[in-house]
């Protein structure tokens, strides 16, 4: 037998195995035996994990009993907490941000200068799914009207809308009879944001949906961290009136997660509920096995919870481009444009 | 001239690279062809004296070919730039093709007309808004869909919305609408996030056994006004119970009542709040505060008053 051809990419584990004379499972040619070996390996791993968890739990319990702080638990890595550091993250105490907010295009809206007025229109084609979606949008957003597109250019429509004192304009674009894009133009001088629209679910299709009232909704803007996200959040806020009627208990949410903006429309209610919790472990007292077993494991507590009932449509937006000024794709100044090479890193987000 | 006839015989019957045979008609793909059809009189290869109009980058040129230059292919075609003015262009054609066969003159003028018309149309269209068609590479579409689904699970939407609403409730954004004495209760979600549950609840355990000396009623919220009006008859009595004498004598009864109070709070189930009403009018969320069922005895032996749930 000649010398075995060494695989250059053996790792430390495999090297050890080979030196110990044990066969690698991946080298067994017989499928049944190979899968049996793998099953053994997996069972080993599961056993080890259980032991680790048990050891960790006992260490924690002992530490708590002794009155020391237990060793900190490992925090699992998620995409959110390994996100690439972004220098444009807006800090709440940033003076520059506050100054900018005072003079940007939405400052008038936030100063309650006028009630927002929304114009919704479509691209040249308007099929029935798009019309249904727009109908739902009209129920969610107060003071919104739909106008048919006709054969006008967008720039002309922007001019007409300005003449009639609209504050925002939506253009729902569609492809193959399904709405797939949303162009939001904030009207007096506002920025134009183009979003990809996806995952539309109309209220009829939502199980257990509720019927919204006509109260002014409350707005929730979650997770808009960077400066760009802050600007987009203000753009959304400019669509809804600034005086929510809390008694109506209507909440409209724009939640940003990994650059996808999820839109939800709920009715909510606060309730007091009895919650069962694990019984607290008191220091030193009753730590022997007998009394531990006798003590009650759960304790009832009163807590206030919020319950939601979804009404109205559900959809997802993804920002494609943000252009300052009203719609002008040829000569407009783009603040942000999505390019394909922005997608290369899985930990980098812009909103 | 003799060679023209020969050329045509060959081209027509044997093979011509530029001929495009259709069901009804034969077309000629040669760039210099005036009409675009494959005819004896239209064929640029089979006619030693020929002229066409061609468009290069929006300007029109008149091309002419004559027998004298047929031996020198490089200098075969003479090119004249036509003026942009349609009328003047027509005159130029007339001038250059003055003694040429009428067929060619006519066809050239027709071609000029057609070309100017389509150039005008192109310029008009360029001013109009054109819709930009964007490609959607299947790979990217799939990737986006996948990422969206994962983002959706990562954003635990219901929980985060509820959390945000509870934060707003705690920070007092809703003012007087809700009657929860929120400071006494704790958010469940916040509880989960804290360090070992043992530490938090330990503090609570120590607080509860404390004996509190309170009045008969727990008057914590401001909008007790309607409640106050209800008991207007006994309202005179209320201030009396705040006197020290009244309190001290009520101490014993209070303590036992305190215990009852706690027990009643713990065992109380959540009140029936209308949750799924779809009315135009707002549901009165400010329901009457759950008051503990407490009986108050006064020293002066007045009527017993009890609160209602």
TrEMBL record, chain A:
Record-linked PROSITE patterns: BRIX
Gene assigned in the entry: LOC112285140
Annotated InterPro entries: Brix, IMP4/RPF1
Alphabetized Pfam families for the sequence: Brix
Biological processes, Gene Ontology terms: maturation of 5.8S rRNA; maturation of LSU-rRNA
Brix domain sequence ranges: 116-328
Any GO CC annotation of this UniProt entry: preribosome, large subunit precursor
Disordered: region residues: 48-77
Organism of this sequence: Physcomitrium patens (Spreading-leaved earth moss)
Protein name as annotated: Brix domain-containing protein
Biased composition (Basic and acidic residues): 54-63
MF annotations from Gene Ontology: rRNA primary transcript binding
Top-level lineage group: Eukaryota
UniProtKB/TrEMBL annotation, chain B:
One term under GO cellular component: nucleolus
Keyword tags: Nucleus
Protein family per UniProt: Belongs to the MAK16 family.
GO biological process, one term: ribosomal large subunit biogenesis
Region annotation Disordered: where it falls in the sequence: 193-309
Biased composition (Basic residues): 266-275
Subcellular location field: Nucleus
Gene that encodes the chain: LOC112279037
InterPro entries: Mak16, Ribosomal_eL28/Mak16
Domain of life: Eukaryota
Pfam family, one: Mak16
Protein known as: Protein MAK16 homolog
Residue ranges of every copy of the Ribosomal eL28/Mak16 domain listed in the record: 6-118
Composition-biased stretches (Acidic residues): 193-229, 241-261
């Amino acid at each position: 037998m000649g010398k075995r051809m060494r695989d250059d990419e053996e790792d430390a584990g495999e090297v050890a195995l080979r030196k110990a004379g044990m066969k690698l499972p991946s080298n067994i040619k017989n499928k049944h035996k190979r899968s049996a070996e793998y099953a053994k390996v997996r069972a080993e791993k599961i056993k080890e994990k259980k032991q680790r968890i048990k050891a960790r739990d006992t260490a924690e319990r002992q530490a708590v009993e002794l009155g020391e702080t237990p060793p900190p638990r490992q925090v699992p890595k998620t995409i959110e907490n390994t996100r690439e550091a972004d220098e444009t993250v807006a800090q709440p105490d940033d003076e520059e941000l506050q100054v900018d907010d005072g003079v940007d295009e939405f400052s008038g809206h936030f100063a309650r200068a006028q009630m927002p007025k929304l114009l919704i229109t479509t691209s040249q084609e308007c099929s029935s799914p798009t019309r249904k979606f727009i109908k739902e949008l009209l129920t969610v957003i107060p003071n919104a009207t739909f106008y048919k597109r006709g054969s006008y250019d967008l720039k002309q429509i922007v001019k007409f809308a300005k003449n009639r004192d609209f504050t925002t304009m939506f253009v729902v674009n569609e492809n193959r009879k399904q709405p797939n894009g949303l162009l939001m133009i904030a009207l007096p001088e506002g920025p134009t944001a183009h979003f990809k629209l996806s995952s539309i679910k109309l209220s009829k299709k939502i199980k257990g949906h509720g019927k919204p009232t006509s109260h002014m909704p409350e707005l929730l803007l979650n997770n808009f961290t960077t400066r760009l996200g802050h600007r987009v959040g203000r753009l959304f806020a400019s669509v809804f009136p600034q005086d929510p009627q809390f008694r109506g208990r209507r909440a409209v949410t724009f939640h940003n997660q990994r650059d996808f903006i999820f839109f939800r429309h709920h009715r909510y209610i606060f309730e007091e509920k009895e919650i069962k919790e694990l019984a607290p472990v008191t220091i030193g007292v009753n730590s022997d096995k007998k009394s531990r077993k006798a003590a009650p494991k759960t304790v009832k507590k009163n807590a206030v919870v919020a319950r939601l009932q979804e009404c109205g449509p559900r959809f997802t937006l993804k920002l494609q481009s943000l252009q300052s000024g009203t719609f002008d794709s040829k000569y407009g100044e783009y603040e942000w444009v999505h390019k394909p090479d922005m997608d290369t890193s899985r930990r980098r987000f812009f909103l | 001239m003799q060679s023209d006839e020969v050329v045509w015989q060959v081209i027509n019957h044997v093979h011509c690279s530029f001929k495009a045979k259709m069901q009804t008609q034969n077309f000629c793909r040669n760039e210099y062809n005036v009409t675009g059809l494959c005819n004896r009189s239209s064929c640029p290869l089979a006619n030693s004296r020929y002229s066409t109009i061609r468009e290069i980058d929006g300007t029109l040129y008149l091309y002419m070919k004559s027998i004298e230059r047929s031996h020198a292919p490089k200098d075969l075609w003479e090119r004249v730039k036509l003026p942009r003015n349609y009328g003047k262009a027509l005159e130029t054609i007339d001038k250059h093709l003055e003694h040429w066969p009428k067929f060619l003159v006519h066809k050239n003028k027709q071609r000029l007309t057609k070309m100017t018309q389509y150039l005008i149309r192109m310029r008009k269209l360029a001013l109009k808004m054109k819709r930009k068609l964007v490609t959607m590479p299947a790979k990217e579409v799939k990737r986006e869909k996948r990422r969206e689904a994962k983002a959706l699970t990562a954003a635990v939407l219901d929980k985060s919305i509820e959390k945000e609403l509870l934060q707003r409730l705690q920070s007092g954004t809703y003012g007087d609408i809700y009657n929860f004495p929120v400071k006494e209760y704790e958010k469940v979600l916040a509880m989960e996030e804290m360090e070992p549950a043992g530490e938090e609840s330990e503090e609570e355990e120590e607080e509860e056994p404390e004996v509190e000396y309170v009045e008969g009623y727990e008057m914590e919220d401001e909008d007790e006004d309607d409640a106050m009006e209800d008991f207007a008859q006994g309202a005179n009595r209320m201030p009396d119970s705040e006197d020290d004498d009244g309190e001290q004598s009520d101490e014993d009864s209070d303590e036992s009542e305190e215990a009852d109070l706690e027990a009643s709070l713990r065992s109380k189930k959540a009140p029936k709040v209308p949750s799924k009403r779809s009315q135009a009018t707002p549901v009165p969320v400010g329901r009457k505060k759950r008051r503990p069922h407490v009986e108050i005895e006064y020293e002066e032996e007045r009527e017993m008053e009890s609160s209602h749930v």
